[in-house]
Design goal:
Structural class of chain A: mainly alpha
Helix content of chain A: 55-70%
Number of helices of chain A: 11
Shape of chain A: globular
Shape of chain B: globular
Strand content of chain A: under 5%
Strand order of the largest sheet of chain B: 5-6-7-3-8-9
Number of domains of chain A: 1
Largest interface: A-B, 27 and 35 residues
Radius of gyration of chain A: 20 Å
Distance between the termini of chain B: 34 Å
Low-confidence stretches of chain B: none
Structural class of chain B: alpha/beta
Oligomer: heterodimer
Helix content of chain B: 25-40%
Radius of gyration of chain B: 25 Å
Mean pLDDT of chain A: 85
Strand content of chain B: 25-35%
Largest sheet of chain A: none
Distance between the termini of chain A: 38 Å
Order of helices and strands of chain A: HHHHHHHHHHH
Chain lengths: ~270, ~325
């Protein structure tokens, strides 16, 4: 094992195992996701049946998108927010994070990554089973080619890198006493909407599609899932990766710089 | 050469004041009154390897701020800090790998994780080799008597048990310097005694330099050969505990109990004599009159049943000192 990576792997492992011990939370999360799928599919179905516009995707594809979204939601910033770093900042416990021989940004990035992955892995199993067993229109049908599904998984993973960079940007904002907790919370809400977690982005007005495609949050969830639901061609893969890379590097650099600035003028409260 | 050197260190915090009430809060969104709090001003001292230094002062004196600057967490506004030839905040990761820190009011252990897993995580974070880790952990747990707690989740530990585990966590990577910020806060007498014993032992065996802040004067008395007193961000005293006593509390007191009522006590060398039934309290300056002469006089005046000579307790001494300096 690479000695440099050892602390980060240990932190990752601890978080993953830590999440597993809460059984009630495990079942509660899974059931919540499934209930939401039924509610959201029912709403979308009403528009398909009685609306008079043209949708970019079929109802089956929309239902598939909604299932996949509920499974992928835990990879998004703002969903199931990890409050530990924020509470450590506000209570002054952050002092202990700063006496570790680790880069603070990397430390928190790995915490965010572990938290996201742990939540994702813990909820995906039961939700997937329910998705494949669901009746009629609601059932998850993966009509896409194996290659498209693979592209979906791959871009979801690279999207997670971007997602964690956004979370670290929020940590940096929370560390800044001039900013506080509010804007980060607002950003999280915007992220959820623009990632398509309320309504798949292909069901938004046509005029918005170009903007929606290039903004950072689509490439974390909506664009990768389109490959899996068969709602996007494989030829769109380079564009998705490019979006993720551009935003990822920009947000990563911004977060690092901001956090560095905060550390220089940090106030750690209390005795 | 000194292991820790601070010279002319200053740290100021900006405190933003909010006006009272709703209107004040709304106004605060546009303009705010600022106040500068000078937490530490022109602080200079140095500590040699292996020293055990007590760092005391009232709340808000700047103790924790100093510790945090020495730990590399806070950056001073001006002045220099050099610890083991490094500037803490410039080479933070290299610096913190060599020090251990315990903040008595915080926890560094993962609260929903068993103690040994928390330790293993710290082992990996500090990249401690497995062989050395096992030996070190066995040593430390045996010394503090917490072997049985290793599988208990941190959240189920009592405060005393947790503090012992916090201490182990801070020592796993065998730091050369240990900063202890109120390590005995809230602990019962027995636990305090065992922690003190452990710290003295560690200092003697491994030569670990320790700097501890505390409000418990017994900690200082039991542990520290050297005391630094800080008030309002400035160093007020730096020296041996006895020296502090000699300068700020030179008096001693004889408490005597007589076998029968004494008519009158004539002790012109004493500073004060209080006679209360069978008991007498005599305050004197050892520099002016040797205690044995006073004791001989007392014994000659009346038969004694009990007699003690006491130094003023350091708690009262420090309280007097704070008062004198208007802190």
């Amino acid at each position: 094992m690479n000695a440099k990576m050892r602390p980060y792997i240990a932190l990752f492992r601890q978080r993953l195992l830590g999440g597993l011990q809460y059984r009630a939370g495990f079942w509660g999360t899974a059931i919540t996701h499934v209930v939401w799928v039924y509610v959201r599919v029912a709403i979308v179905a009403v528009f398909y049946r009685h609306g008079n516009g043209q949708a970019g995707i079929t109802l089956e594809q929309a239902a598939a998108m909604i299932w996949l979204q509920e499974m992928a939601l835990n990879l998004m910033p703002g969903f199931g927010v990890d409050t530990t770093v924020w509470s450590r900042i506000s209570r002054g416990d952050v002092g202990y994070d700063l006496v570790r021989p680790l880069d603070v940004y990397n430390h928190w990035y790995v915490s965010a990554l572990s938290d996201k992955l742990a939540r994702f892995l813990l909820s995906i199993g039961p939700v997937l089973v329910m998705a494949l067993l669901a009746p009629g229109t609601v059932r998850l049908r993966l009509a896409a080619s194996p290659l498209s599904i693979l592209a979906g998984f791959f871009t979801l993973a690279t999207g997670l890198m971007l997602s964690c960079a956004v979370i670290c940007l929020c940590y940096a904002a929370q560390m800044d006493v001039n900013v506080g907790n509010g804007p980060a919370g607002a950003l999280m809400t915007v992220a959820q909407i623009l990632a398509g977690s309320l309504l798949p982005l292909q069901l938004w007005p046509d005029a918005l599609q170009t903007f929606l495609r290039w903004q950072p949050f689509a490439s974390m969830m909506d664009l990768p899932l389109r490959f899996m639901a068969g709602a996007a061609a494989l030829s769109e893969l380079p564009q998705v990766l490019l979006t993720q890379a551009l935003w990822g590097v920009a947000i990563w650099r911004l977060g690092r710089a901001w956090m560095g600035l905060n550390l220089r003028r940090l106030i750690v409260q209390g005795g | 050469m000194s292991q820790i050197v601070l010279s002319q260190v200053c740290k100021t915090f900006v405190v933003r004041k909010r006006q009272k009430g709703l209107f004040g809060a709304m106004r605060g969104a546009f303009t705010r009154d600022k106040e500068l709090v000078r937490a530490v001003r022109e602080l200079s001292f140095s500590v040699n390897e292996g020293e055990l230094v007590g760092y005391i002062g009232p709340n808000g004196a700047g103790k924790s701020t100093t510790i945090k600057m020495m730990s590399g967490i806070l950056v001073p506004d001006s002045g220099e800090i050099t610890i083991m030839n490094r500037v803490p905040w410039k080479e933070r990761t290299a610096h913190v790998a060599q020090i251990g820190v315990v903040f008595g009011q915080r926890s560094q252990l993962w609260w929903d994780t068993p103690v040994n897993e928390s330790f293993e995580l710290l082992r990996d974070i500090y990249r401690v080799p497995q062989a050395g880790y096992r030996r070190r952990l066995d040593d430390l747990t045996a010394l503090l008597g917490v072997e049985k707690l290793m599988n208990t989740p941190v959240r189920q530990l009592s405060l005393g048990q947790r503090m012992k585990c916090e201490l182990i966590g801070a020592l796993l990577h065998a730091p050369r310097i240990l900063f202890l910020d109120e390590p005995t806060i809230g602990l019962d007498a027995v636990t305090k005694l065992s922690l003190r014993g452990f710290l003295t032992d560690l200092n003697r065996r491994e030569g670990v330099t320790m700097l501890l802040t505390t409000h418990d004067m017994d900690d200082i008395e039991a542990l520290c050969s050297r005391v630094m007193v800080i008030g309002r961000g400035q160093l007020l005293f730096d020296g041996a505990l006895d020296e502090l006593r000699a300068r700020y509390a030179p008096h001693r007191m004889i408490r005597a109990r007589f076998a029968r009522q004494c008519a009158a006590l004539e002790l012109p060398e004493a500073e004060s004599v209080v006679l209360n039934g069978l008991n007498a309290e005599i305050t004197f300056l050892p520099a002016r009159v040797p205690p044995e002469r006073l004791i001989a006089r007392l014994a000659a005046a009346c038969p004694l049943t009990d007699l003690t000579v006491e130094a003023p307790d350091i708690e009262r001494l420090v309280a007097g000192m704070y008062e004198e300096m208007a802190l």
